[in-house]
């Protein structure tokens, strides 16, 4: 991903979605949407293949990969409440659907192989889920490429080499890549809009042209001039500016997306409002049959005012909000992957729960989420949000580091204190494994979200008190990533280790399968 620069609103805070897992549902959805574009929405057969040596083989059904793909292939929004039944709707259109486990030598644990067919063509798309819903298409048929969904992508099959210069001269074209495939010479054009035949010289001989629309909320440009990409560069950039972390977040995202800082702020306000509604919905109570836990937040809310409950002050307010968000996720409600769906409670539940308890206004909440988002950019740049690559430290651990910086922002702490809080919180997460019970992102995920909320609170107070974080944030992120990669694959969201392999967990998995079967 050296050629991909993370965005706060693409990678760290988002997408807005339904479902258990962003690495599964959101990523698969985006792959499905791009596949639908590539074949112009015309489908007669869909073949989905998962490699038995990857992480998706045991989890593609229970964590929603299939459901996400079908929703994307239908062209629906990722928050569509018909998502659970997307396969049935796709088959009702006359499309034949097959899911197979095939050893095709996948080199990434989250690899999707998608073959789409209609009466006139067939294409094979190979894509990977990187974490937090971010994807990369690495091949289409025999053409190796790199496609993240952050540009308008146009493919033109032509042997006419004179077309290259014409395309490069178009003001909305960012880059042009040439591929040689079995069907001849292919041009891949990344730009700010799609290319049509009207944009080409009349004399141009082309065999075919295809356009894929962006799937990410913030687009990319080769002309963007980023002020910094890691925290050390950020501190140097800010040496004579005295900006706070949330102001630096605006600078970065404005440059990253070529949009005004005011627009970035308002986009984050929209996210905060979605999160506040989700928290409120979770506290009211949620219903969904295929889940391990019943709704937990209403009972916690009731206990908060009782004498039989430990008085932990603001931490209880954070626990309530974290639990509410996890309840909504488990009931297929609308959440924000911040940075992932599996860790959707840690960051927003902690920061917004505390801010609400302290009667802080909406602008303060937006600033906290912006600060957290910029820490997330540094993590996405140097590490990963994917539990399949880095264990739960990559998800709830990252969320905790982000939340710690957000909390310091809420309390008007300095930039140095924000960075110290993030560093200390992340240091405490090393080795946190991902072992979802019954392949559902509920247990022990709820407990880990709550635990990492407490970690963020502790790190924030330590930073505000002047504790020395000792190890620079960038070094911590790199070390965290190395630790995550060192974890055995059984402890990285495969359902093959830890609590997932206990007798009780296996019995629960069997019971859920017998009661609910294959959801997709």
- Give the CA-based shape: globular
Radius of gyration: 23 Å
Q: Provide the CATH topology of the domain at 151-213.
A: Alpha-Beta Plaits
For CATH, the homologous superfamily of the domain at 151-213 is named as ACT domain
Class based on secondary structure composition and strand pairing: alpha+beta
Q: SSE order in H/E notation?
A: HEHEHHEEEEEEHEEEHHHHHEHHHHHHHH
Low-confidence stretches at least 5 residues in length (pLDDT < 50)?
Answer: none
- Placed side by side, the strands forming the largest sheet appear as 3-2-4-5-6-7
Account of the 3D structure:
The structure is a single chain. The chain has 520 residues and is α+β, with helices and mostly antiparallel strands. The protein has a domain at 151-213: Alpha-Beta Plaits, CATH 3.30.70. The protein has helices spanning 8-12, 22-38, 65-74, 86-92, 163-168, 231-237, 245-257, 261-284, 297-304, 314-330, 346-357, 362-382, 387-390, 396-410, 415-427, 445-464, 473-486, 503-516, and strands spanning 16-18, 45-50, 96-101, 111-117, 122-131, 134-140, 143-147, 152-157, 173-181, 184-191, 208-212, 334-336. The strands form three sheets. It has a six-stranded mixed sheet. A hairpin with a 4-residue loop joins strand 4 and strand 5 (122-131). Helix 11 runs parallel beside helix 14. The radius of gyration is 23 Å and the shape is globular. The mean pLDDT is 95.
């Amino acid at each position: 991903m050296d050629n991909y620069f993370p965005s706060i609103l693409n990678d760290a805070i988002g997408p807005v979605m339904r479902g258990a897992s962003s690495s599964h549902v959101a990523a698969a959805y985006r792959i499905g949407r791009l596949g639908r574009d590539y074949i112009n929405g015309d489908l007669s057969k869909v073949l989905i293949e998962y490699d038995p040596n990857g992480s998706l083989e045991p989890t593609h059904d229970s964590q929603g990969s299939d459901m996400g793909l079908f929703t994307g292939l239908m062209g629906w929004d990722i928050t569509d409440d018909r998502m659970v039944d997307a396969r049935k709707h796709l088959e009702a259109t006359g499309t034949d659907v097959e899911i197979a486990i095939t050893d095709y030598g996948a080199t990434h644990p989250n690899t999707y192989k998608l073959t789409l067919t209609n009466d006139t063509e067939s294409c094979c798309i190979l894509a990977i889920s990187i974490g937090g819903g971010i994807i990369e298409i690495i091949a289409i048929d025999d053409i190796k490429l790199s496609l993240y969904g952050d540009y308008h992508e146009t493919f033109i099959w032509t042997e006419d080499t004179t077309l290259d210069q014409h395309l490069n001269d178009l003001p909305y074209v960012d880059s042009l890549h040439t591929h040689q495939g079995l069907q001849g010479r292919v041009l891949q054009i990344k730009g700010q809009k799609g290319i049509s035949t009207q944009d080409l010289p009349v004399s141009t001989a082309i065999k075919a042209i295809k356009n894929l629309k962006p799937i990410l909320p913030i687009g990319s440009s080769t002309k963007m001039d980023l002020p910094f990409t890691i925290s050390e560069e950020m501190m140097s950039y800010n040496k004579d500016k005295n900006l706070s972390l949330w102001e630096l977040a605006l600078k970065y995202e404005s440059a990253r997306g070529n949009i005004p800082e005011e627009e970035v702020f308002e986009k984050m306000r929209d996210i905060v409002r979605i999160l506040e509604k989700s928290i409120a919905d979770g506290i009211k109570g949620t219903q969904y049959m295929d889940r391990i836990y019943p709704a937990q937040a209403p009972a916690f809310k009731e206990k908060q005012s009782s004498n039989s409950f430990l008085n932990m002050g603001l931490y209880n307010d954070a626990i309530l909000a974290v639990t509410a968000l996890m309840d909504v996720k488990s009931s297929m409600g609308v959440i924000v992957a911040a940075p992932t769906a599996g860790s959707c409670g840690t960051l927003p539940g902690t920061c917004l729960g505390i801010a609400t308890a302290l009667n802080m206004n909406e602008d303060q909440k937006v600033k906290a989420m912006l600060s957290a988002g910029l820490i997330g950019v540094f993590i996405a740049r140097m590490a990963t949000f994917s539990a399949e690559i880095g264990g739960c430290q990559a998800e709830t651990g990252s969320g905790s580091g982000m939340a710690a910086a957000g909390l310091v922002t809420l309390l008007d702490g300095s930039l140095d204190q924000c960075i110290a809080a993030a560093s200390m919180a992340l240091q405490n997460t090393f080795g946190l494994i991902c072992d979802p019970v019954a392949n559902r992102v509920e247990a022990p995920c709820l407990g880990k979200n709550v635990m990492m909320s407490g970690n963020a609170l502790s790190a924030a107070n330590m930073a505000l008190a002047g504790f020395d974080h000792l190890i620079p944030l960038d070094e911590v992120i790199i070390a965290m990533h190395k630790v995550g990669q060192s974890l055995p694959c059984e402890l990285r969201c495969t359902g093959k280790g830890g609590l997932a392999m206990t007798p009780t967990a296996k019995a629960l998995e069997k019971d859920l399968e017998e009661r609910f079967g294959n959801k997709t």
